[in-house]
Amino acid sequence: MNNEGKWEKRWHPLREEWVVYSAHRNNRPWQGAGKATPKPAPDFDATCYLCPGNKRIHGSVNPDYKDVFIFENDHPVVGMTAPKVTSGDSLYKKDRATGLAKVVCYDPRHNITLSQMKLPEVEKVFEAFQQEMIAFKENPTIHSVLIFENKGEVVGVSNPHPHCQIYAVDFELKLVSQQIRVAETYRRTNHKNIFEDIIAHEQLDKSRIIAENDFAIAFIPYFARYAYEVMIFPKGNHQTLISLNEKELAGFTKAFHETVRKLDMNFEMDFPYVMAMMQAPIDGGSYPEFRMHCWLQPPYRQPGLIKYLAGPEIGAGNFMADTMPEEKAAELQKIKVTEYLWER
Predict the structure, then answer these.
(1) How far apart are the first and last CA of the chain?
(2) Taking a C-beta distance cutoff of 8 angstroms, is the pair 68, 104 a contact?
(3) For residues 159 and 109, what is the distance between their CA atoms, to the nearest angstrom?
(4) Which CATH fold would you assign to the domain 47-339?
């Protein structure tokens, strides 16, 4: 009997929690949701509020844009003119939610994704991310910035037009703050940078690396919670996108592009995920131990089978994973990304 990946737990150093692996359970009987069937979509949708030339909910008309188009969200979660809020007490605190919420349309075509776009087009998207960060850094109100994409109906995207959102807020982002604290503690205890150590471990092992070039590396981490979870790091010492030079940004984009194409090819589908750009605060503070990275968390563990958060995850805060990181990385390593067929 093969017991590999059976009842094993691994410490997640960035989240400070155990992840339990029971890969033998991945073949257990399943009576949950069936495989999602993608719906065909046209290049242009007259009812889409993100397509070029269309009117949005408050009457603004989108320009006839040709590549990246960015605008302030018509339904922002935060605002620079947020109304004043009466302060609460030391336990039940409250305050106004100040900031900027933006929408980034990647492409005028309604029916395309970052993986299907040509690499130079994706480079324009990442360059736009960098320019937004540069502008946010000059705004004294902004403390932290989250660039994120909810890709696919299965993760709750409200509009299939290729886009992401940016939340530039006046408060700390919890997971980034946790990683900064962990990294600072690791430096004091081990006299090393935790992110550099993680990358070094992955490069030494090699079994979980998905893409790598001179400037960036992508891998399913040793402590992955989701089956196809990928972390993508620039190899340089960068706390945000702002400091990447032209070649570094291009290399980072290339590693991302290769990764999302491999995810598509593995299941022969437009693979859904939640993407987050993890970046240090831009509040004028110093965060030398933090390393920026792109974090992909796809919900599927098999075609049509979603990793639902249930009792252990919601009730206790510990992930129970049904697959081993090495097993899933091996699937992606076998794929020849040069054979990608859906580029448009």
Answers:
(1) 46
(2) yes
(3) 13
(4) HIT family, subunit A (3.30.428)
CB 232 within 8 A of CB 218: yes
Return the biggest CA–CA distance within the chain: 64
Give pTM, 2 decimals: 0.94
The full length of the chain comes to 344
Residue recorded with tokens 């194409």: 261
Q: Could you give the C-alpha distances from 303 to 33, 92, 140, in angstroms and in order?
A: 11, 44, 46
Domain limits, the chain: 47-339
pLDDT tens, position by position, 68-122:
999 999 999 999 999 999 887 889 999 999 999 999 999 999 999 999 999 999 9
Q: How many helices and strands in the chain, by DSSP H and E? A: 5, 14
Bridge partners of residue 165, in order along the sequence: 103, 148
Distances (CA, A) of 257 to 43, 100, 112, 264, 340: 21, 27, 14, 11, 11
- Other beta carbons within 10 Å of 126: 23
- How many CA atoms lie within 13 Å of 43's alpha carbon, on the beta-carbon side? 3
